[in-house]
From TrEMBL:
Top-rank taxon: Eukaryota
Originating species: Pseudovirgaria hyperparasitica
Single GO term (MF): oxidoreductase activity, acting on NAD(P)H
Protein name from the UniProt record: Zinc-binding oxidoreductase-like protein CipB
One family name in Pfam for this protein: ADH_N
Subunit structure: Monomer.
């Protein structure tokens, strides 16, 4: 049973760039929502962007935050019994972005509502801290597959010669894509600092490159050619637009190459473009029914199965930040300053 009120970290208005800690009424989950007792929160760049700039747009007062490891306490009246039920340990991707920071749906509180599609039971051997790191990373990687125009349930063999360039493999959304691509049977060309190549190899990266090498573009083009592969798809987890386009332009014959970019920097007026190469922002389907089906596939089929089989798991190294909700501002400042192959998590 959830208490009547609980602690929440609130963004009170657009001019206050830090969290205010309040007691708020614990919501009753809507018909298609699941109420979760939050035990661990993983942090993402969108959290400090919304705190600092109110972008992506939120309505105030707002509760933001996306990544939860927790326990189901109640389910909405229309949630079928096949979805996680009270008492189930879960990873959850709170729909704060899609609900524009509407308070019931933000992760940064002790009890949060999450759309049923995005609540996934975790295996017994997984802790709630680890579980908290999965939501944003997994859904963004799968949205990247969708944005690149590939089927989410695609399975390829060597004869299909499917290849993907992943720029920023050690970013949290990059490390998830390395795993997703490995599971799909896609050969990956992955960039990261050399110190992160070891863990990316264990996640299944096929070929690794240091993006700081002056000739990294030539190295990648040469490696793909050596492997007899054509790079028609790229996923950017780190803002490497120019270099990615320089790789893809070498593979323009036939089908148009696609860059699926997670960073929103592609919307800047001076963001580079290349004739004959499509540049798309990573997102899910816009149409609500299609979106719900898409999330349902990710949360209730793909992620559930892959966690249970052990094929997929935590990508980045987990670093715990002490201090509960009160440490949110400081932890987000640390994230904004830059992390390397690391996911920051707060226990609450
Ligand atoms: N579109 C969406 O739905 C969506 C969803 C989630 C995130 N995002 C965006 O995706 C981006 C990544 O988010 P995140 O949480 O994964 O970030 P993160 O984990 O904080 O990213 C840190 C990593 O970025 C790598 N990096 C930095 N500059 C790089 C460069 N020039 N080339 C290659 N790698 C570089 C670093 O690699 P090394 O330490 O190895 O150098 C580091 O490991 C952010 O811009 C975020 O806003 C978008």
């Amino acid at each position: 049973m959830a208490p009547q009120t609980h602690t929440a970290a609130v963004l009170v208005d657009k001019d206050t760039h830090s969290f205010t800690f309040e007691q708020r009424a614990t919501p009753t989950p809507g018909p298609n929502d699941i109420l979760i007792e939050v035990h661990a929160l993983a942090l993402n760049p969108i959290d400090y962007m919304q705190r600092d700039r109110g972008f992506p747009a939120i309505d105030y007062p707002s509760i933001v935050g996306s990544d939860i490891g927790g326990i189901v306490v109640a389910v909405g009246s229309a949630v079928p019994s096949s979805y996680p039920q009270p008492g189930t340990r879960v990873t959850a991707f709170a729909p704060s972005f899609y609900e524009k920071g509407k308070p019931d749906y933000g992760a940064f509180q002790k009890y949060a509502c999450v759309w049923k599609e995005m609540v996934t039971a975790i295996p017994e051997n997984m802790g709630l801290v680890e579980a908290s790191t999965l939501g944003m990373a997994t859904y963004t990687a799968m949205n990247g597959i969708y944005t690149a125009g590939l089927p989410l349930d695609g399975r390829y063999t060597a004869t299909d010669k499917k290849a993907l360039l992943i720029w920023g493999g050690s970013a949290s959304v990059g490390a998830s894509m390395v795993q997703v691509a490995r599971i799909m049977g896609i050969t990956t060309y992955v960039t990261a600092s050399a110190k992160n190549h070891g863990f990316l190899k264990t996640l299944g990266a096929s070929r690794l490159f240091d993006y700081k090498d002056a000739d990294v573009v030539q190295q990648i083009v040469a490696a793909a050619s050596e492997d007899g592969l054509v790079l028609k798809h790229a996923y950017d987890a780190a803002g490497g637009t120019r270099q990615i386009l320089d790789v893809l332009k070498e593979f323009k014959d036939g089908q148009e190459p696609v860059l699926a970019s997670a960073p929103a920097s592609i919307f800047k007026p001076d963001s580079p473009r290349e004739p004959g190469v499509a540049v798309k922002f990573v997102k899910c389907p816009d149409e609500p029914t299609e979106r719900s089906k898409h999330f349902d596939y990710i949360g209730q089929i793909w992620l559930k199965e892959k966690l249970a089989s052990g094929e997929y798991g935590v990508g980045s190294k987990v670093e715990l930040v002490e201090g509960g909700f009160e440490s949110l501002d400081k932890a987000l400042d640390t994230l904004r300053a830059g992390v390397s192959g690391t996911k920051l998590v707060i226990q609450v």
